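Amino Acid Chain and Its Fold in Token Form
===========================================
Structure side: the spatial fold of the chain, written down as a series of whole-number tokens.
Position: the record begins directly beneath this header, with no further notes in between.
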Amino acid sequence: MKKNISNQICRRILIRAANWVGDAIMTTPVIRAVRKNFMDAHITVLAKPWVISVYENNPYVDDVMVYDAADRHKMGAGTLRLVSDIRQRQFDLAILMQNAFEAALLVFLARVPVRVGYNTDARTWLLKPAIPLDPALKKTHLIDYYLGILTGAGLATHGRDMDLYLSPADRDDADHQLFNLKKNGSGRVVGINPGATGGTAKRWFPDRYAALCRRLAKTYDTRILIFGGPKDRALGEQIRAMAPGCCVNLAGETTLGQAFALIHQCDLFVTNDSGLMHAAAALNISQVAIIGSTDPKATSPDSPASTIIRVPVPCAPCLKDDCPTDHACMDRITEDMVFDTCCRILDS
């Protein structure tokens, strides 16, 4: 039986964000829908520090509350401090994007009267209302999975399009970084994102990224930016060294917001399944997404400007961090496949 909270008086709403950049971006249709269901409410997003950039410029959000698990909210006394921080804000409604038991426990202990989330992870008794998880939603895209929380609570969803808003400062910084890069070449900028959270199973091979960069630079006189976090710095250097004179390694050199703004300037983005893949999709940037071990039904880039390259193999999607066999799902994606797809996009 569907719950209905649409007639609740909710002046202050807390949305517990997803913990990963890609998931956070895929929850932005929920943020928009909550605003449209409760036009006069004050909406706060509770998020880990590394996903703050997804929400801080979003016009549907009034406030971002940092879940500082490394310091102020560190497990133990910090957990009680987080409960106190939530309670002090006197929220009327909490909507939980995260399925973890802890997410429900926090808002229960903080005495938020209406607590909405899926009835997973033995947390039904902590939620009010607990939304039954329709098994069919596990076979759909994560955008629909997250929106299902609102549908189960009797709220309108207001579309599936993802939102990603850039700050003026990040836009200006991207303009400044790309000015000299563009004026000495064709003006076309290609971004590559050779890393991915977790292990190596989601990653196309560095030597093939380097070969792709060499061919794109030679054919189109492109300027190529290598994206990634601090942990991807060495990977970016490896690719830059294998494609001399072609690439600028930005991995670990930008904030997440700056990376979003730079992706927005790209004529083409080539990426593994990653948070930045979903950023490019939300920004409607032409991209080639190389998919191996992950489930394309659940986490594909949801944009008409995105092209997926995937070669079906019996063991995929395995959803593993590291390949236990021969990495066939990535090995069968050739340099020519990706280059030819890039050419079709750049020539269109």
In short: DSSP finds 14 helices and twelve strands in the chain. The chain has two domains: 12-152, 168-347. The longest strand covers residues 42-47.
